[in-house]
Amino acid sequence: MQYFLEQRCHLLVTHALTRNETREMERWKEQSGAYQFVGVTNAPKLG
């Protein structure tokens, strides 16, 4: 498992202003074949 994480996994953090913008970015990246969306993340609410 550690080998897989070290050699094959990376994080890409991209800021989006809206949930719809995020969905469009995910859709484009998945269609390109470069990334696969595999889960849901929850961001803490600010303020």
Number of strands: 0
Order of helices and strands: HH
Mean pLDDT rating: 80
Poorly predicted tracts of residues: none
Structural class: mainly alpha
Number of discrete helical segments: 2
Rounded Rg: 13 Å
Helix content: 40-55%
| Shape field | flat
For the biggest sheet, the summary is: none
What is the end-to-end distance? 38 Å
Portion of residues in beta strands equals under 5%
Account of the protein in words:
- The protein has 47 residues and is an all-alpha fold.
- It has a domain at 2-32.
- The protein is built from two helices and no strands.
Keywords:
47 residues, mainly alpha, 2 helices, flat
Kindly summarize this structure in a few lines.
This protein is mainly alpha-helical.
